[in-house]
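Page 37, continued from 36.
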């Protein structure tokens, strides 16, 4: 996570962890029940987290270059999350 660093402000850490917590709660409760609104809300949570990271961390723009180290782990987590949302969407519809 970009703000979870020693030099980050406390509100940045609180904001990122609260958004991540909302995403986890959405995945555990309403998404498992098959509620459609939760899929869109979870996608919005991932879009905010991913958009913020890509906008503030210049190393994330180098993620496609295999010879440079950027935020590969974060991008892999985004891909897994989007794949999970696609699987839920296929199951729900």
């Amino acid at each position: 996570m970009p703000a979870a660093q020693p030099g980050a402000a406390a509100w940045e850490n609180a904001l990122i962890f609260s958004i991540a917590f909302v995403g986890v709660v959405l995945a555990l409760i309403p998404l498992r029940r098959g509620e459609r609104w939760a899929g869109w809300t979870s996608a919005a949570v991932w879009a905010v987290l991913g958009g913020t990271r890509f906008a503030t961390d210049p190393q994330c723009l180098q993620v496609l270059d295999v010879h440079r180290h950027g935020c590969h782990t974060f991008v892999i987590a985004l891909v897994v999350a989007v794949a999970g949302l696609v699987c839920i969407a296929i199951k729900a519809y």
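The two ends are 32 Å apart (CA to CA). Flag for discussion at group meeting. The first helix runs from residue 10 to 28.
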